[in-house]
Amino acid sequence: MSDDTIRLVTIGRIVRRRRRLLTLLVVVGALVGYGTSMLLPPRYTTSASVLLPGAWEERELRTQAEIATSSVVIDRVAAALGRPKVSGVELRERVTAEVADGNIITVSGTADTPEQAQRLADRVAQEFVTFAAQILGSDTDPDAAARQEALRQLVVQTNRRITELADAADPGRTVESVQTRTDLEKLRTALREAVDRLDQADPASDRAVKADMVVMGPAARPAGEAPPTRTQLIVGGALLFLLVAVVGHLVAARMSRRLRTEPEIAAALGSTLLGTVDVPAGRPAHRPAGRGPRALARRLLGVDVRWDLPAPRKSGDEASRQTRYRRVCARLRDRLPASRLLVVVPDGDEIARLAAERLAAEAASDPSPGESSTGYPTLRVVEVPVSQPMLPDRAEEFGALVVLSAGSWTAGELAGIAEACADSGHEVVGVVLAGTVLAGPTRTAGRSRPAAPALPTADDATGVPG
């Protein structure tokens, strides 16, 4: 697993190098969203408000909101709209009630057309007000009302009796009579205050106020569809496919087992690194013919180019790049002077193939052709498939030089190439890594180089599958 930190530059690299594939996936996601919108009919939602006069606690308001969506109210709505066959569960899913500020309950209805949604919201509000008034009105206890009326009649009779006692007392002739009249008046006042407090505490009057609910006008006809709309589904499908594609690229990169560092690649091949060479970016890669429709589709989608490789670094001029190739040839000469080697390139590694061809051309341009003991080795380029690597048996060649690009192959694939070299009798004398660079200014290398001879392909090597 790669330990590279996922940064915005990584996301930008994915979008830039996989833009064709991402564009196709976005279009497919939009089509999937459009197909989903065709399966889901459009829905319209509108609301009606019900005002609850009086003093209500928050708990009571929540209870009234539950009553608005109760089965009794919903069944009455279905019967009033002429839809008795519609189940209460189905209709209840289209009706919601919420408590708003100011003792207001908002009742919402969802239907297939704006007209049906408006009728549903209005009917639910009306049936809710009717049912709530019935509940509040039925809370009055007939026995309690009768007892309260009897108490009022008793208070009236007591007032009359107090008046008779006050008139019967000797008005102002004795101290006892004055005191009696004063006590009777205090009793009359206390009794009147008790009756007033009893009237004020009457729950029936409070229920009457609360039962007077008001529908605050008809529901507005909806002008647009309720979410998710067709546009939202199309955009959501496109974004979902784009997100899945980007996340998939990131997960694949994190789980990748391709070797990137020089020591890991050299250890997998069981050899040493002889150097690194540069291949100018943008140079046309000559791909073998007959790759089939799958390879054509990969080229059209742009997935035949690795996206997780870093951007090519800047390079010097042609002379500096040629110097790298000559140094590799010099190291080969020091190891195996005047010998013949196979240059093994994994099939499909175009960067490595270009580097191997350049390296063979440099080796062919021996700077001291008259001194055979100090000349460059003769190199022959062969491409081997990594799935079933096979090399020609040892004949004139005395070893194999593996040329490949970093970050393209796993340890198992490179170990297979090393085993194929050992089976054919070729010792891996070294490893050369090839990388792409931005081409710098062109400058002559100080001497003219002869034209590179025609190089044999993998088909010319005995035992190499075409």
What attributes does this structure have?
six-stranded parallel beta sheet, four-stranded antiparallel beta sheet, 15 helices, disordered C terminus, Bact_polysacc_biosynth/exp, transmembrane, LPS_length_determ_N
Describe the model.
- This protein has 466 residues and is of the alpha/beta class.
- Among the domains are: 8-40 and 228-254, no CATH class; 143-208; 262-460, no CATH class.
- 50% of the residues lie in helices and 14% in strands.
- It is built from 15 helices and ten strands.
- The chain has helices at residues 8-17, 19-39, 58-68, 71-80, 88-92, 114-137, 142-168, 175-200, 203-210, 230-254, 262-269, 292-301, 318-335, 350-364, 411-423; strands at residues 44-51, 95-100, 104-111, 214-215, 273-280, 313-314, 340-346, 378-384, 400-405, 428-438.
- The strands form two sheets. Strands 5, 6, 7, 8, 9 and 10 form a six-stranded parallel sheet that branches.
- Strand 2 and strand 3 form a beta hairpin.
- Helix 2 (19-39) crosses helix 10 (230-254) and helix 7 (142-168) runs antiparallel to helix 8 (175-200).
- The relative contact order is 0.11.
- The model is unreliable at 283-290 and 443-466 (pLDDT under 50).
